[in-house]
Amino acid sequence: MNVGKPVFAFTPHESALLMGDIGRSDIAAVSFIADAEACLHAFAFVMAGGMSAGLPQEIAVHLDAVVRGAAQLRGALYGLPDDIAMLIDLHLLADGAQRRVAADFSQLVEPLEDIAGAIVDIQRAAKEGA
């Protein structure tokens, strides 16, 4: 979400104080502080009017690219089982290849559809909230 503005960050002294208050200084505490910084940055962005016109431009462009890329990859993958079946019929591949490709296919396509669907939901919510 860094759209040309400085990212919020605690000073080293503030981070040390927070870790003292948390009572830990392990990776979980460091991750908690990083999450808090990201949330405060997002809050400052929204309060400064950064969401008044929907998603920030650089994020909107990136999300559009991901949705397009997922659609292109899904489209290419949908033809793969037929291609594999033809290669088996031509005795260029063994039957085991078809089972492996079918298993891999199902593990790839569904998550791509989920990601694209989630991004479309985010875009729709941003438009409705703008």
Précis, in short:
This protein is mainly α and 130 residues long. The chain contains five helices and no strands. It has two domains: 12-47; 57-129.
Using the alpha-carbon principal axes, give the shape.
Answer: elongated
Structural class: mainly alpha
**Domain tally:** 2
State the low-pLDDT regions, or none. none
SS elements, strand count: 0
Order of helices and strands: HHHHH
Mean pLDDT: 81
Number of helices: 5
- Tell me the strand percentage band: under 5%
Can you give the helix content as a percent range?
Answer: over 70%
Rg to the nearest angstrom? 23 Å
- Spatial gap, N to C terminus: 17 Å
Largest sheet: none
SSE blueprint and pairings:
Blueprint: H1 12-22, H2 27-47, H3 57-78, H4 80-89, H5 95-129
Helix pairs in contact: 3-5, 4-5
Could you explain the architecture of this structure?
There is one protein chain. The chain is mainly alpha-helical. The chain has two domains: 36 residues; 73 residues. Helix content is 76%, strand content 0%. The radius of gyration is 23 Å and the shape is elongated. The model has no long low-confidence stretch (mean pLDDT 81).
List the keywords.
elongated; 0% strand; 5 helices; mainly alpha; 2 domains
